[in-house]
Amino acid sequence: MSSTTDPRGHARPVNGAALADHAHDRSDRVEANARLTAMVGVVLLVLFTAEVVTVILGAKQVLSAHAAIGYLLIPVVLLKMASTSWRMIRYYRRDADYRRHGSPTLFLRVLGPVLMALTLVLLVSGVVTYIGPSWAHPTALLTHQTSFYLWLAALASHVIAHFLETFRLTARDFLPRRGRIASGPWWRRSGVVAGLAAGVALALILSGHASTYLAQYHHHR
Ligand code: HEM
Ligand code: HEM
Predict the structure, then answer these.
(1) If you measure from the C-alpha of residue 151 to the centroid of ligand 2, how many angstroms do you get, rounded to a whole number?
(2) TM segments (predicted)?
(3) What is the pLDDT of residues 147-185, one digit of tens each?
């Protein structure tokens, strides 16, 4: 029997079943990318919920927690942006597997970059409000407060649109069923854990600034 080499360098025999397998293997990395995006989405959903709870309690009242959770989620957000940008780049560079998988609907194709931009504005303005120079404080705080409402609306639409898919994709890694194996579940989990670890480090290094902030800006509201 002749043999060929799959993308991971394993030799495999060429026959009907193996060819079907081979085709499945090639789209494996598309599936792996989607699962990473979804798994990071689940973690973000938890972190955003916690962050919105601190907003409901009053960000200034629980400022250490607000800043710590804010810093914690920054690397995880970057991971999400990396995995979705990767899919976008592969698609526009005409990668056959990503092309075959198709693109999201027009609404989601527009919403995705808008959500990314709003998230960046929200996080950067939060950090500048917190540790930036005092001359930038009023503008940064206003930007942070205003972008929050736009961001929340964009995020809610994004989450509603992807809700079922998120749990379906994530469940495949934790409850693998026959025929639905995507390479690298260990790498995906490690990536998410590494993102969280980077966030914890960031939070520990940078969030202990709350008392200085409150002393400096006590006259605001
Ligand atoms: C601010 C945070 C987030 C940003 C910036 C972001 C960004 C994006 C972008 C740009 C896309 C590609 C376009 C699209 O398919 O809509 C995407 C896809 C996706 N997002 Fe998010 N997202 C965020 C949060 C979330 C959350 C909280 C969830 C979980 C509910 C989630 C679940 C998904 C899923 C399942 C996909 C499709 C993955 C695929 O099939 O390739 N995202 N996200
Ligand atoms: C998803 C992430 C975040 C959300 C949803 C969010 C949301 C908000 C909202 C809505 C406010 C206004 C609260 C009010 O006026 O009562 C606020 C205030 C604030 N946030 Fe954030 N924020 C986030 C991330 C961050 C980050 C990463 C930092 C910095 C580490 C930060 C630092 C602050 C500070 C310093 C205030 C001002 C408190 C004050 O003087 O009134 N935030 N945040």
Answers:
(1) 13
(2) 36-59, 65-86, 106-128, 148-171, 192-215
(3) 999 999 999 999 999 999 999 998 887 876 644 666 777
Q: Is 36 in the pocket of ligand 2 (CB under 6 A)?
A: no
**Ligand 1 centroid from CA 13, angstroms:** 38
**Do 111 and 151 contact (CB within 8 A), yes or no?**
no
Which tens digit of pLDDT belongs to each residue from 126-155?
Answer: 999 999 999 999 999 999 999 999 999 999
2 contacts 13 by C-beta, under 8 angstroms: yes
Residues 34-92: tens digit of each pLDDT: 999 999 999 999 999 999 999 999 999 999 999 999 999 999 999 999 999 999 999 99
| 5 bridge partner residues | 11
Residues 1-10: pLDDT tens digits?
344 444 443 3
Considering every ligand atom shown, identify the ligand nearest to the alpha carbon of residue 125 and give its number.
Answer: 2
d(CA 81, CA 40): 10
The ligand 2 atom at the shortest distance from the C-alpha of residue 206 is: 30
- The structural domains of the chain, with segments of one domain joined by +, span 26-177+186-212
Nearest residue CA, atom 2 of ligand 2? 70
Please report the sign of the dihedral spanned by the C-alpha atoms of residue 179, residue 185, residue 188, residue 193: positive
Q: For the chain, percent helix, then strand, then coil, each to nearest 5? A: 80, 5, 20
C-alpha 28 to ligand 2 mean position (Å): 39
Ligand nearest to the CA of 159: 1
In angstroms, what is the span from residue 198 Cα to ligand 2's centroid? 20
